[in-house]
Amino acid sequence: MPARGEQPSPLLRTTGAVAIVVGIVVGAGIFKTPAMVAGITQDHGWLIAVWLAGALVSLAGALCYAELCAAYPHAGGDYHFLSRAWGKRFAFLYAWSKAVVINTGSIALLAYVFGDYMTRVVDLGAHSSALWAVAIIIALTAANILGLSFAARLQTAMVLLLVGGLAAVVVAGFAVPAAELTSRPSPAWFASTPPAGMLGLAMVFVLLTFGGWNEAAYLSAEMHGGARAVARVLIISLSIITALYLLANLALLHGLGLNRLAASKAAGAEVLGLHFGAWGERLLGVLVGLGALTSIHSTMIVGARGNYALGRDWAPLRRLGRWSAGRGAPVNAHVVQAAISLALVVFGTFQADGFAAMVEFTAPVFWAFLFMVGLAVFRLRRRQPGIERPFRVPLYPLTPVVFCAACAWLAWSSVAYAASQAAVHVSLLLMLAGLVVLGGLLLHERLARHA
């Protein structure tokens, strides 16, 4: 067994954890999704109802994760839950997909978003966006290597700025001049009902915009306050996120009206422009860049902990499983994560379309594994009824059933969309590569036992 100093310590307080979760979830999506959902629903009431439904499904999932985190706190997060419920071989495939493409691909793409914004401020010439992306990945990785306490303080500061910027959008939306409002007819809520398929499509976009709260599981071993602290963090985080999303949508509806919102390519910029003028529109660029930064930073924090858990379980990867007690961080895991992310940035510079497809079409894998995490609540209760569970899912079994159904539906929708784009092979190739690596690890273990 490793010494105590080589393992995660409870250094993270509620404020820092909430900032990390909010930072993962609230990114550039909230500046784009409201217009898409408005175009799909074509009704004020259904627009808000879909966002509320997304919040409730996310809360159901958060409560499932809270039980698992309270019973099995571990820096490996949902990788650890999958390992306990379905075995470490199955869990490896999930950790593999996250380490190689899902987390690192998200970091790379968000770094490109940040690079696109910064290029308008300071153009570095050929491949300027890629150069900015490389710079921010290195800078934020260095911040994380300095330790969790520093990283959490930095994240809290950035999230406060982001929330302040979103508040400016809300204020601008509700402060639209009276003349602008009187030129539009009063909206009728629930005047028409969209087809079920269109409501389903709207929910896909909403749930994707809510995505990321599950990453709080990777912080469960470092939470100050014991096992129940993660439940508190998840509930507070989702309450803040839901309030921000609903206020943003209501403000955009008030400021632009349904038709103008649905047709807008940059609804936030339009609203800010109506109230603050030209500099207000530029403010949106800052918010998008800041949203990218908070998401990159949060993803780095939790992603490295997943890699650390891999190193603890598999002897050939043991260097990943080293923990720096002085810094409160898995330094080697951060370095490997940064290296993969930088490689994807370089690859994306020359293969933009293929790169975007590689990341986007791993969604079927992600939602399929999240479905299995939901099932783990049932399986672990049955297999390990004697384990102390400081927090239990309320309304069991209804709550985990709702979460599992939502994950299964999103997995199916992701597969259908990937098939329509002739890109299902991306997910299949990712899993095939993972199976090859898994085979190599199992062979190494067998040879080591017989040595």
UniProtKB/TrEMBL annotation:
Its primary localisation, in coarse terms, equals: membrane
Q: What membrane topology is annotated for this entry?
A: Multi-pass membrane protein
Q: Which UniProt keywords apply?
A: Membrane, Transmembrane, Transmembrane helix
Residues annotated as signal peptide: none
The answer to whether the entry has keyword Transmembrane is yes
Q: Which GO terms describe its molecular function?
A: L-amino acid transmembrane transporter activity
Q: Which organism is it from?
A: Candidatus Accumulibacter adjunctus
Which Gene3D superfamilies does the entry link to?
Answer: Amino acid/polyamine transporter I (1.20.1740.10)
Protein name stated in the entry? Serine/threonine exchanger SteT
Residue ranges annotated as transmembrane are 12-31, 46-70, 91-115, 130-150, 157-176, 196-217, 229-248, 283-310, 331-352, 364-381, 393-412, 424-443
Q: Where in the cell is it found?
A: Membrane
Q: Which GO terms describe its cellular component?
A: membrane
